[in-house]
């Protein structure tokens, strides 16, 4: 068995040898990453007339800056855990999610090892973990309990629940992208809706019945739905290739007909997994006056209260910038 060189060994090599490792294209991503790190740390790129490492990576190797850093981080992380774990990673993409736990600048070998071993357990004895499985483990480790649900009487509730499918473990499953919740736990949430309120709830085709049950548990009566049509996207689906998603609309109380009736077709490009079109916010605001609450939110939106376990979500109402508001009012 060949001896795995350490970063110290790479740092002793001249630039020509380090470049040879990268240039051959026959080496593993670990070797490439450590060679890049040695060039970066030793500022060896200056020997060939570069003052900036990223410019060197772009022009000498034809890599995007992000690609260079991905290889550098992955090579370092893999070398750190390779002497500890039983199943070594075979590809850079498997290691890439671990950089969320720590990088070469702030090494976290204990966390990297813990996450990789957990991903290997998830994959099973005779299979390498996929990038999505490693991502799932990392997100579980970074999971933060959401703050208490805001108090109040919100006239509009908008939500994209983290439905728990029975296909966890597949690359395209929701659980490979973020922690999910069982339907009964979602239904038990105490939603701070006003007596007269409307709920907009995203439902995948497979979880339609569950979504209707949650609407009812939250005391909303299903009225209709809107359809997000996806021109592109992954080939997900056991019976059809699913290229649409439903936005259910339910109401409670009286007088909840909208001020504006939008067309029921939503158009928007597919981007990050489960990310919904931004235009939906505008549509809801045209239909109903607030106050607005988004549950399971990933970000904050002016004029809304956002709730969720994403670290960027404040849980507090976000004021609309006065200049933007005045411009909107004419």
The run of helices and strands is: HHHHHHHHEHEHEEEHEEH
The helix fraction, in percent, is 25-40%
Rg (CA only)? 25 Å
- Could you please say which CATH topology of the largest domain applies here? Rossmann fold
Overall pLDDT, averaged?
Answer: 82
So what's the overall shape? elongated
Low-confidence stretches: 167-178, 320-330
Largest sheet, strands/sense/barrel = 7 strands, mixed
Annotated CATH homologous superfamily of the largest domain: Vaccinia Virus protein VP39
Strand order of the largest sheet: 5-3-4-2-1-6-7
Work out the helix count.
Answer: 12
CATH class of the largest domain: Alpha Beta
Determine the strand fraction and express it as a percent band.
5-15%
**What's the architecture of the largest domain in CATH terms?**
3-Layer(aba) Sandwich
Structural class: alpha/beta
In whole angstroms, the N-to-C terminal distance is 74 Å
- The strand count comes to 7
Any idea how many domains? 2
At a glance:
The chain contains 12 helices and 7 strands. It is an alpha/beta fold and about 325 residues long.
Question: Can you characterise this structure?
Answer:
- By secondary structure, the chain is of the alpha/beta class.
- The chain has two domains: 7-141, no CATH class; 154-329, Vaccinia Virus protein VP39 (Rossmann fold, 3-Layer(aba) Sandwich), CATH 3.40.50.150.
- The chain is 35% helix and 14% strand.
- The protein has helices at 7-11, 15-24, 29-42, 53-61, 65-81, 92-95, 109-123, 131-141, 183-187, 208-217, 279-287, 322-329; strands at residues 154-159, 193-203, 221-229, 244-252, 265-267, 292-295, 304-307.
- It has a seven-stranded mixed sheet with strand order 5-3-4-2-1-6-7.
- The relative contact order is 0.09.
- Mean pLDDT is 82; it is low at 167-178 and 320-330.
């Amino acid at each position: 068995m060949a001896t795995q060189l350490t970063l110290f060994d790479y740092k002793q090599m001249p630039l020509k040898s380090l470049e040879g490792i990268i240039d051959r294209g026959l080496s593993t991503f670990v070797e490439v990453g450590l060679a890049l790190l040695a060039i970066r740390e030793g500022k060896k790129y200056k020997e060939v007339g570069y003052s900036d490492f990223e410019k060197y990576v772009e022009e000498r190797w034809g890599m995007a800056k992000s690609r260079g850093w991905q290889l550098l981080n992955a090579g370092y992380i893999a070398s750190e855990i390779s002497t500890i774990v039983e199943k070594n990673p075979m590809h850079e993409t498997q290691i890439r999610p671990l950089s969320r736990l720590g990088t070469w600048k702030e090494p976290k070998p204990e966390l990297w090892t813990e996450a990789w071993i957990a991903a290997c357990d998830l994959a099973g004895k005779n299979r390498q973990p996929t990038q999505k499985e490693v991502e799932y483990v990392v997100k579980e480790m970074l999971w933060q309990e959401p703050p208490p649900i805001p108090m109040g009487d919100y006239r509009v509730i908008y939500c994209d629940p983290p439905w728990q499918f029975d296909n966890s473990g597949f690359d395209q499953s929701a659980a490979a992208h973020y922690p999910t919740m069982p339907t009964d736990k979602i239904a038990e949430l105490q939603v701070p809706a006003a007596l007269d309120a409307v709920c907009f709830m995203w439902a995948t085709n497979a979880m339609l019945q569950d979504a209707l049950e949650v609407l009812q548990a939250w005391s909303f009566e299903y009225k209709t739905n809107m359809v997000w049509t996806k021109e592109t996207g992954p080939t997900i689906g056991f019976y059809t290739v699913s290229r649409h998603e439903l936005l259910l609309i339910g109401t409670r109380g009286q007088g909840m007909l909208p001020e504006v009736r939008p067309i029921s077709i939503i158009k928007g490009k597919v981007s990050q997994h489960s990310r919904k079109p931004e235009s939906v916010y505008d549509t809801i605001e045209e239909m109903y006056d607030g106050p607005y609450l988004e549950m399971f939110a990933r970000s904050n939106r002016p004029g809304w209260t956002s709730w969720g376990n994403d670290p960027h979500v404040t849980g507090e109402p976000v004021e609309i910038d006065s200049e933007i508001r005045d411009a909107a009012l004419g």
